[in-house]
Design a protein that fits this description.
With about 220 residues, the protein is α/β, with parallel strands linked by helices. The chain contains eight helices and six strands, in the order E-H-H-E-H-E-H-H-H-H-E-H-E-E. This is Histidine phosphatase family protein.
């Protein structure tokens, strides 16, 4: 069994632009975000994919729709919405200023950005620290995140052998996947809006072929 998957980060939203925490909360795509989606659609036009999934959050769904509209080589019209591919839920910190939250969670350790914390602690410990700092106890820790995300990977592995799929997901989620499955990934660099991560899934392996690319690299 081998399944090829292209994970795409959604286009820029207004909360991205304003450096606000955006997990399960949502915001419209900016003009740049619309262009991000169209650009990745053109980039993926060289790939014959059989399925397109998106998280059920509107920024991912709308990115997927724009991606499909910009790809002249696909007959697919609508993404399959899969909640397993949602962004991490930040609980109490949803909508808060990202820099302020980074200072709350990591400031006393010398970390002032999420990239610094991800690089220093790893993405799973970062989730756990955010969850611990949430006074309401709503933010997802690593265990809850992976219980959800692994259901999405199970769904991908259930596709027919040799299928090719696109999944429109989210920045922290994609960075977490790369952190788990790509040795030596630079956690100081967040996946860009409209970037692509290619993966190969088999019965026994989960492999990242490339990460955080704006185009399909030439072989």
């Amino acid at each position: 069994m081998a399944i090829t998957v292209y994970f795409v980060r959604h286009g820029q939203t207004y909360l991205n632009r304003y450096n606000r925490m955006q997990g399960w909360s949502d915001a419209p795509l900016t003009e740049k975000g619309i262009e991000d989606a169209k650009r990745v659609g053109r980039a993926l036009s060289k790939v014959k994919f059989d399925y397109i999934f998106s998280s059920d959050l509107s920024r991912a769904v709308n990115t997927a729709r724009l991606l499909l509209a910009a790809d002249p080589n696909t007959d697919l019209k609508e993404p399959i919405q899969e909640p397993a591919f949602r962004e991490i839920f930040f609980g109490f910190f949803e909508g808060a200023n990202g820099g302020a939250v980074a200072d709350i969670v990591g400031g006393k350790y010398g970390y002032h950005t999420f990239s610094q914390m991800a690089a220093g602690w790893g993405t799973d410990e970062l989730k756990d620290r955010i969850a611990k700092a949430d006074q309401y106890g709503d933010a997802e820790d690593a265990e809850r995140f992976w219980q959800r995300m692994d259901k999405g990977f199970d769904r991908l592995r259930s596709l027919p052998d040799n299928s090719v799929a696109v999944v429109v997901s989210h920045g922290a989620a994609i960075r977490s996947i790369a952190d788990r499955y790509l040795e030596g990934v630079d956690q100081n660099v967040s996946p860009r809006n409209g970037s692509i991560m290619k993966m190969t899934l088999t019965d026994t392996d989960t492999h990242v072929d490339f990460y955080n690319q704006l185009h399909i690299p030439d072989k």
